[in-house]
Structure formats: structure tokens, C-alpha cells
Amino acid sequence: MFVNFLMATNVFDMPTSMFCRYLEFFNIERATPMQTWDQGTRRIYEKMAEPFMDKIYLNRPVRKVYREPSGLIVEDQDGNTEKFDDVIFACNANQTLMILDQPSFLERYILSSIRYESELHNHTVIHSDASILPNNDTKPLTTRSNYIEQYGARPDNYEITYIMHNQQPWASHSDKPCLVTYNATSKIDEDRIVKKWWFQHIVHDVKHLVFLVPLFGFIQGRKHTWHCGAHTLINSQETCFVTGLAAARQIGAEYPFQDAEARKWFNFYGRMLYGWRFTKARATPLPKQTSTAT
Ligand SMILES: Cc1cc2nc3c(=O)[nH]c(=O)nc-3n(C[C@H](O)[C@H](O)[C@H](O)COP(=O)(O)OP(=O)(O)OC[C@H]3O[C@@H](n4cnc5c(N)ncnc54)[C@H](O)[C@@H]3O)c2cc1C
After folding, report:
1. Can you spell out the DSSP letters for 9-41?
2. Per-residue pLDDT tens for 123-160?
3. Which of the listed residues 91, 168, 245 should we mutate to test ligand 1's pocket, taking the one with most ligand atoms within 8 A of CB?
4. Ligand 1 midpoint to CA 235 (Å)
5. With contact defined as beta carbons under 8 Å apart, do 4 and 146 qualify?
6. Distance between CA atoms of 178 and 86, rounded to whole angstroms?
7. Beta carbons of 200 and 230 less than 8 angstroms apart
8. Which of 76, 77, 129, 182 has the greatest CB tally within 10 Å of its CB?
9. Interatomic CA distance for residues 242 and 21, integer angstroms
10. Which residues line ligand 1 (CB under 6 A)?
11. How is domain 56-116+202-277 classified at the CATH fold level?
């Protein structure tokens, strides 16, 4: 648990109260059963984007965003420009600051105050080489969510392997082990590597949670500019997803799910992000079912 947070949010700076709350969720001894989407979150994004897929640009990095009274101009990496009504920044705070032309004093202050860790626990290997896991009584390959190996004297000298086929029910049907290793010091067979990746990750210190997160409310929506992602709330996949939905809701989108419990949490986080200005999600009637006689 400690290593997990060391990696994702730098546990040395994390408020203890937050760490304790996380402990309520997870079972450290066995793989935590999770509710997941069949074939991963990619499926849900594809389904949500289906009606406007032709309007989405992928692999087109943004270089600069210039704001004007009536809207904004987005310039891509190749220098092409397009006009838009609003922008939602879903990249990291330091990346937003680089992209945003003439940020206000408050925007500059908030975005530059978010701390990132870019050297510690940032290298990731996705692979199927189970030889890096021990074949002992704990049987990590079949029972555990992750396996941790300490390789040095420093408290952060860990190699950690997530055993994804034990975490994600749909991945358990795979004919190969589904493994993700961070901070790899063990030798991983190159032929079994699917991808290597690099992250910077947010440092969830007390200043961030207590001071900077509420300050975002003062810059959201100013000059057609919105912000979402880990730095605007809490560093976890679900909450980051919710911050994106909440920003979309603020500029007029409907909340896209029917589940009442999920909607309750969406409104809870929305209020936290936007205060009284938040447009709460409403229960939307299900589309009428049509049946065909055969
Ligand atoms: C090692 C590690 C392990 C983690 N494990 C877990 C876990 O087990 N469970 C959990 O809930 N959370 C976990 N997290 C946290 C979770 O992954 C993050 O909170 C979440 O992914 C952050 O989402 P985000 O949208 O803020 O940023 P990101 O997911 O980082 O997305 C930002 C995107 O912006 C894009 N971008 C950047 N610059 C530009 C540009 N100029 N133009 C266009 N696009 C750009 C980037 O390519 C990137 O895709 C982990 C994080 C790390 C680093």
C-alpha cells in the first residue's frame, strides 16, 4: 500500500488522513476484487464518443492556446490553428502553463504551485514475463494484485509489479500473464515487452489538497478556460475521469450515466470542484425500449 502511494502520489508528502482513508478500500493480502469495464476503460470512452467521433483529433498535440474576448485559438504542434468557444485542459498543470498564452497572475500561481515527481517511480514496462515474480508459497502470479521487491537501502528503492490479470476480471482470460512493472531492476525479456512508458506524477501534499484544489474554483471558466485532471481534485483514475465529466457538464453536456449512486458521487465531487456554480447532474429518463416481434 505504501509503495503504491509512494509511486503514484509521493506518500512522504501525503496527509496521513488521506492515506488512512485509502486503507479502508484495499485488502493488502489478496487481490482486491474490482468492478471493471469489459476490455478496460478504452471501451467506455469509445462508447461515449461514438456520436461525435469524427470531431475528435487524436495524436495532434496542442502547442499554444491564445484567448480572445469572443473565444480562443488553438495552435497545434504543426502550427495549424482553429477557433473554439471553450477549452478544457486535461493535461498536467505544468503542461497547461506551457500551452496557455498570457496566463493571469492567479492561473500562473496555481498551475506553477502543483508539484510533480518526474524521477522517482516513473518508468513503466508492460509485459508478460512472469519470471520476474517468485515461484514461492505466496503464489503472486495467481493470487496477488501486486508484488514488491526492495532492491536498495533507501525507503523508495522498490520494484513493483502489478499483476493485472488478478485485478481485472476480463484480463484473467488472457493466455499470457498481464504484468506492469514500475522501476524495473529485474531483467525483463525484451520479446515479452508490449510497451514502455514514462510518467510524471503529482505530489499530493497538504498544500495541494487544502489550498490549491479550492483555488481552482476561482479560475474555472474564466476567459473560456476550464481545467480537469489529477491536479484539480484527487489523484486516482476515477476521480480524474469525474473531473473531466464535471468540466463538460459546466459547459452544457449531460451527465452520461444512469446509475443513481454514481450520480450522487458525481454531484458531490462537482460541488467540491465548482461550489454553488456547479450544474448538478439530473436523472435522465431511459430511452424507450422498442421490441420487434419475430
Ligand atoms: C505509476 C502510476 C501508477 C498509478 N496507479 C493508479 C492506480 O492503480 N489506480 C488509480 O486510480 N490511479 C493510479 N494512478 C493515478 C492515475 O493514473 C492518475 O491520477 C490519472 O491518470 C491522472 O489523469 P489525468 O487526466 O490528470 O492525467 P493523464 O492521465 O496524465 O493525462 C494527461 C494527458 O494529457 C496529454 N497531453 C499532455 N500535453 C499535451 C499537449 N500539449 N497536447 C495534447 N495532449 C497533451 C498526455 O499525453 C496525457 O495523455 C497512477 C499513477 C501513476 C503515475
Report:
1. H-GGGS-HHHHHHHHHH--SSSPPP----TT-H
2. 899 999 999 999 888 888 988 888 888 888 876 788 88
3. 91
4. 9
5. yes
6. 39
7. no
8. 182
9. 19
10. 7-8, 61-62, 90-92, 95, 99, 121, 182, 199, 201, 229-230, 235-237, 240
11. FAD/NAD(P)-binding domain (3.50.50)
**pLDDT over 80 at 240, yes or no:** yes
Ligand 1 atom 12: the closest Cα is on which residue? Answer: 236
Residue carrying C-alpha cell 453536456: 253
| pTM as predicted | 0.86
CA of residue 144 to ligand 1 center, whole Å: 24
**What SS3 class is residue 282?**
coil
Cell 473560456 belongs to which residue?
Answer: 224
The total number of residues shown for the chain amounts to: 294
Name the DSSP class of 251: T
User: Cβ of 127: how many Cβ atoms within 10 Å?
Assistant: 24
Residue 13's alpha-carbon distances to 74, 129, 199, 209, in angstroms, are 36, 33, 18, 11
Pairing between strand 123-127 and 193-198? antiparallel
Integer-rounded Cα Rg, in Å, for the chain is 21
CB 192 within 8 A of CB 129: yes
The answer to whether 191 and 225 are in contact (CB under 8 A) is: no
DSSP state of 1: -
% of the chain beyond a pLDDT of 90 = 56
Residue 75: partners with Cβ closer than 8 Å, 6 or more residues away:
62, 63, 64, 65, 66, 81
Strand partners of residue 149:
159
Amino acid, res. 205: D
Q: Where in the chain is the domain with CATH 3.50.50.60?
A: 56-116+202-277
Cell of 288: 424507450
* 54 conformational bin, left if phi > 0, alpha if psi -120 to 50, beta if neither: alpha
